[in-house]
């Protein structure tokens, strides 16, 4: 490709909003452009990268025995109603009606469609297992889209679905896919960590995320140094040590407490430890239910865990006004005597303390010696606590905190979908049995962004060869026509030798700008043809990630690059 | 691929609704499954075909200098409003709102998006021309979807858009794309005719369809035997010879006419020629406007031409009740004295006759000696007549009628989009100028269906090798384990030699069924391993489109197939 013909150019000017390296460089180097928030154009350079990433995933999936197919983007809404996902996906689901009034979901994931498809065949035990996958545009009406390709509202996803006769057979596939996924990301230059995670609205009992460690990632996880444990903070379990559980229960008393509204204010005023205080957080869910999360004062609430035990889909903090509307008081909320319509969700850490203190639902009045069961009865009880660095996991090992980008995930679905959709196969005895299922996803756009996050420097992208749009960036320098003729010949020769080249053939652009563009675009090899290089006996060749260059004879250039 | 592992099987039972060969065979052979009308799953076999077709189109487009990229599927609706396509596409446009209330069109074509993208760059004359294209899912809320892949509501389209400094430069690209398209279809085994056509809601001044002749096609066109003329019936022009134009205008008179409602009833009753009668057809458009199409009695109205001169988007026939509501009478409608709110659209053939006859808007009363301008004044006048076989074109050459499937189309857009979207480039003098544009589309699914329509026989599909999912169908016969071991070895060997093989490894299936499946799926080569073939010295090799088979030694098989 000649740079003068390429659609999409590098640009020096870049909005200060583009903070992430992937967003900034993919924009500046001319790989992508934003349409509206969360929806992007791929320019020709970006498209080549996307195709390469897709091809690698496809190769590894095919090798694993999975079969590529394709479902429509619009899913009949009645299928999503069968599995109750019209409810559970809620606001992220986009819906559209056709001229006949039929409703469709813009596919976010395709479990229902794949089960629907399987149901069109008389599948027997003989046909199992099978794993079908697709690359298709997915839609999620995210509340927040992040800049660039990291969190999109419209994106390309590789989603695979496996169908099995039983759990045992599924587990083999699940283990296989763990390896396939690691291999895929490894080929793409990404080291992934596999962490237990929350299944969101996918359903099923367990799942794992593939995470590339990165400061800009939004996946927070906890792990042990020996590698025996890694889990997303939304599911990470930890030991909640017993505090003063041996104490005798004292009488509940009300005391005047003209204090501020924070936990620290409570500690200072009562001169009692933080862990002995009850932390109360009032939420409102998408159905306008009031949910009071209570937890030991030294811990924090994890909203995903809270959603899971309350079956809420979306949560927001109640306003001061809403809290007062309940006959309570901000900063003084208490499960003791709270309005009966409030769902009180208690973290099980409250079982590790006695004679707690906290608000009374009245301004400047606190309660002392609050005891669970005696003074209040939670509507729900379980683990809603946020695991933190330094806590111990259930095996007593210290947890470390990590942060990264989720590039893929794998889910056990079990009978979740086959039950709801009444999807059967015929077993050896001619009986109908439910499928046992799994599903497996990779976000293509996010994977590309992650590669750029991991492979860049101050001057631009430093593509790993496997994902680079071209292998070499050929630059002709100067104004001399001879140089350009020579470069053109080299360009043609390299193409003939199967080497992908971007040739900067611009005559009216200075050397500095050409070099800066080459660094920004980040192809693995830079090849410069100049009067100087020709005098020295060839072209000047430099790896993007190296400072050193060397002169390579023109005749040997193809071989040189092909061997690298 | 082993048949026993393949997802998606052949089936003998097929609904009698599947009348088209492409629909029936692609269903029976396990290439596709319907989700709901107009929306299809591609099964693994179909997916391979789709990928091959896409690859060929991509190769030819790239060779032509066009550059692949990708726009989002959801187009901000405000872009479509700028070009007024929210109106002109009307019912075929699907719209969706996101959680923030932003509206999007589900892309049908992407002119607005590409112009929007071009506007994100400071494009100068130096950067022109460029041609960018994509493969992307398109949505059209068609009133009727046809069975199978011929007319879908969701489909894959290759759509390209070229940007030029002026008309002259555009014309070069337009001529180039004519050749590129012919070449693409030729590679896919399809002979295409290029016919002038209507641009529908795309805009611009002229366009061409690429049509594969076929009895099941919906594109009707007229052409001359010498190849000098070919046009879709929606745009085909023909000579409207003068009839009794020399006659003196006679006095308009009303006569009792107790006759039936058809044109023939009028001819019989008055004993006057059909061409002298005025044909009146009352339509109602999407805006509830009454449109009366009038035309010489021996001609028929072409609704697309009528839409074009009336700027209607959708037309339907008025009911008897609606006609009476206008103070007229079914079978006796007349432009003479019709309700003033009716738009009278006259075909220019009415200028070729004098003293016409027809209804009077009153039951059983006709008018004689009706003359245009004197007795009625059309609101609009132009060509709304259907060209038919036997008519003469404007050069006096006889028209022949053809029928076929539209697999691609190319459009001159001119300044249509750049004007409406105020899209400029900077010319040599630093002045802003509008782009001159063209666009170019190929329907992938319909192309696949067309290949099957052209390449099939009574037993199934007969794939041209270029689009076949595999080159060879390897069949092991009998129950003898040795045969299967031998076949397995051949399978592995062929794969190693780069030959794509579908291996029917089923042990419990009879020879007849295996042969029938091979014919149905339609791979170019059938290779049978049986006791008989081994005794004869190898495997039995037969082309799908031939009756003759021959024995080929196992060692030579790969070479034999690779040379074919």
- Domain count of chain A: the total is 3
Question: What is the CATH architecture annotation of the largest domain in chain A?
Answer: 2-Layer Sandwich
- Mean pLDDT, all residues of chain A: 96
Question: What is the CA-based Rg of chain A, rounded?
Answer: 29 Å
Major sheet characteristics of chain A? 9 strands, mixed
Q: What is the 3D shape of chain A?
A: globular
Query: What is the name of the CATH superfamily of the largest domain in chain A?
Result: Bira Bifunctional Protein, Domain 2
CATH topology of the largest domain in chain A, by name, is BirA Bifunctional Protein, domain 2
Name the poorly predicted regions of chain A: none
Name the CATH class of the largest domain in chain A. Alpha Beta
Q: Could you tell me the strand content of chain A as a percent range?
A: 25-35%
Number of strands of chain A: 31
Q: What topology emerges from the helices and strands here?
A:
Two copies of one chain form a homodimer.
Chain A: H1 21-28, E1 32-36, E2 39-42, H2 44-63, E3 67-68, E4 74-76, H3 77-82, H4 85-88, E5 94-97, E6 103-106, H5 111-118, E7 130-139, E8 154-164, H6 167-187, E9 193-196, E10 207-213, E11 219-223, E12 230-232, E13 253-256, H7 263-270, E14 278-285, E15 290-296, H8 303-310, E16 315-317, H9 320-325, E17 343-347, E18 356-359, E19 365-370, E20 380-382, E21 400-414, H10 416-420, E22 424-426, E23 432-434, E24 436-443, H11 444-454, E25 456-457, E26 460-461, E27 472-476, H12 481-496, E28 501-504, H13 511-521, E29 525-529, H14 531-535, E30 539-543, E31 549-552, H15 557-563
Parallel strand pairs in A: 3-7, 15-17, 17-20, 27-28, 27-29
Antiparallel strand pairs in A: 1-2, 4-6, 5-6, 7-8, 8-24, 9-10, 10-21, 11-12, 11-21, 13-19, 14-15, 14-16, 18-19, 21-24, 22-23, 25-26, 29-30, 30-31
């Amino acid at each position: 490709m000649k740079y003068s013909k390429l659609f999409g150019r590098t640009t020096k000017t870049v909005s200060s909003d583009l903070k992430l390296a992937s967003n900034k460089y993919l924009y500046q180097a001319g790989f992508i452009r934003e349409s509206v928030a969360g929806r992007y154009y791929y320019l020709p350079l970006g498209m080549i990268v996307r195709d390469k990433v897709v091809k690698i995933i496809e190769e590894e999936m095919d090798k694993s025995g999975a079969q590529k197919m394709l479902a429509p983007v619009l899913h009949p809404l009645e299928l999503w109603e069968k599995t109750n996902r019209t409810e559970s996906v809620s606001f992220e689901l986009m819906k559209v009606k056709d001229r006949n009034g039929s409703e469709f979901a813009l596919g976010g994931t395709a479990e229902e469609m794949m089960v629907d498809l399987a149901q069109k065949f008389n599948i027997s035990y003989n046909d199992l297992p099978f794993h079908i996958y697709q690359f298709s545009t997915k839609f999620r009406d995210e509340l927040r889209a992040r800049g660039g390709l990291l969190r999109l509202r419209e994106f390309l996803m590789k989603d695979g679905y496996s169908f099995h006769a039983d759990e045992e057979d599924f587990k083999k596939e699940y283990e296989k896919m763990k390896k396939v996924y690691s291999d895929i990301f490894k080929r793409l230059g990404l080291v992934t960590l596999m962490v237990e995670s929350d299944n969101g609205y996918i359903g099923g009992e367990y799942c794992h995320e593939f995470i590339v460690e990165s400061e800009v990632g939004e996946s927070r996880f906890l792990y042990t140094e020996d590698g025996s444990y890694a889990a997303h903070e939304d599911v990470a379990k930890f030991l909640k040590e017993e505090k003063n559980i041996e104490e005798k229960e004292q009488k509940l008393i009300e005391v005047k407490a003209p204090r501020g509204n924070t936990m620290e204010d409570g500690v200072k005023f009562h001169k009692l430890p933080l862990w002995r205080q009850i932390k109360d957080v009032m939420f409102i869910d998408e159905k306008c239910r009031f949910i009071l999360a209570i937890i030991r004062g030294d811990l924090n609430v994890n909203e995903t865990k809270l959603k899971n035990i309350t079956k809420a889909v979306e949560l927001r903090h109640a306003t001061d006004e809403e809290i007062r509307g309940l006959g309570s008081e901000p900063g003084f909320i208490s499960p003791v005597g709270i309005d009966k319509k409030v769902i009180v969700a208690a973290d099980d850490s409250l079982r590790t303390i006695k004679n707690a203190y906290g608000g009374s639902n009245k301004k400047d009045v606190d309660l002392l010696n609050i005891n669970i069961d005696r003074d209040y009865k939670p509507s729900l009880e379980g683990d809603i606590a946020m695991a933190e660095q330094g806590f111990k996991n259930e095996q007593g090992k210290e947890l470390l905190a990590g942060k990264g980008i989720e590039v893929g995930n794998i889910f056990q679905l079990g009978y979740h979908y086959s039950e709801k959709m009444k999807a059967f196969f015929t077993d050896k005895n001619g009986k109908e049995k439910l499928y046992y299922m799994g599903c497996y996803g990779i976000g293509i756009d996010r994977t590309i962004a992650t590669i750029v996050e991991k492979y860049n420097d101050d001057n631009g992208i430093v593509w790993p060869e496997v994902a680079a749009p071209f292998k070499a960036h050929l630059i002709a320098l100067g104004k001399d026509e001879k140089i350009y003729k020579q470069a053109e010949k080299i360009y043609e020769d390299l193409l003939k030798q199967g080497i992908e080249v971007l040739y900067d053939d611009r005559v009216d652009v200075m050397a500095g700008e050409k070099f800066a563009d080459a660094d920004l675009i980040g192809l693995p090899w830079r090849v410069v043809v100049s009067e100087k290089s020709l005098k020295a006996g060839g072209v000047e060749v430099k790896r993007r990630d190296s400072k050193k260059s060397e002169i390579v004879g023109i005749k040997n250039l193809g071989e040189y690059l092909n061997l690298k």
